[in-house]
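hey can u check if this looks right to u? its 434 residues, i copy pasted from the old doc so theres a chance i mangled smth
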Amino acid sequence: MRVAVIGSGYVGLVSGACFADFGHVVTCVDKDVRKIEMLRAGDIPIFEPGLDHLVAQNVKEGRLFFTLDAAEAIREADAIFIAVGTPSRRGDGHADLSYVYAAAKEIAELMSGYTVIVTKSTVPVGTGDEVERIIRETRPDADFAVVSNPEFLREGAAINDFKRPDRVVVGTDDPRAREVMQELYRPLYLNETPLLFTNRRTSELTKYAANAFLAMKITFINEIADVCERTGADVQQVARGIGLDNRIGGKFLNAGPGYGGSCFPKDTLALVRTAQEAGAPLQLVEATVRVNDARKKAMSDRIVKALSGDVAGKTVAILGLTFKPNTDDMRDAPALDIIKALQAGGAKIRAFDPEGMEEAAHLLTDVEFVGGPYEAVAGADAVAIITEWDQFRALDLGRIKQALKAPIVIDLRNIYKPAEMRALGFTYVSVGRA
């Protein structure tokens, strides 16, 4: 099948490359000249393990193309995926749908023959209705269906998530559109992947509900970690004890500095606003948003306390800046709040991240970015581990201790064992463990 993907950001690029790898002919469209030039030159504008190889392979085999001109891609497409950004709207937290609606109007003006228009972007309930209205108003004669097909990709594992998903959710009541979507995802039948067909509004809400539930799970274990610290319990053992219950599961039960990234912060907020306007407020999700915001800010207090309550003039080494490992995504990363709070207290920051420093440099000021973890800790008064990159899981602790001005480690990801760290002579602070 011929596929057009409008928007070549994280979701659009991963989806386009994977559909091409399924055997479809895919053209990714974007208005960003620099991005398209990079992709045509074989450079990937985001960090996602394996994506460079997947893109290169499918470009070489003539199934994946990149263009600034949407006209030909849209006219020839059997299915057109809208994969543009839906950031939080300034002032009210609603999803900004201006890019989605602009894409819908452009598609309407250019499409030819029966076309399935698929919303891949994360959008509030009812967005598909508005997309359909825009297209119908622009092209009353058009033969088309608007489908919801939310993505459930984890940054750092997106290719595997696309090719071996837990499920594929498709929102449509149109029989022809259903056939097109089944053909697009036909390779997944070999893996017996469930294709869940729903109406469009149900599909749209499913995406938000999934992200909100996972965000609540993270926030729940973070609050349990606080209780553990005050009662002498161990949050990692508590998490294992409840995670072995298959009704709960062990994923997303790692205590830490709070959730961040491109999805959870904006999606929980957008769902809260949607529910409020519908007259059915989601108090659990509202509390999750408040607690998570406070969580990130409170982590800086933990570092300050480890430095005897005063960081003025002291150097804090930061290991890890991105919101999670295996990505360069700095959006709503806990490190941003933590570093800014430490700087407000007079601390000097020296930081290292394997992939996130270039983006972090646009979001932070007066931070010294260095080339590795040992360079970061050299002469520092303390080191804080904020992101659990593999590079930080087996540090030479003797070398770390020798390089630090004082042997203080604040481990916000519980990578190391408290007893072992103390036996090595460290002042060691972790999350939810005695």
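The CA atoms of residues 36 and 286 lie 39 Å apart.
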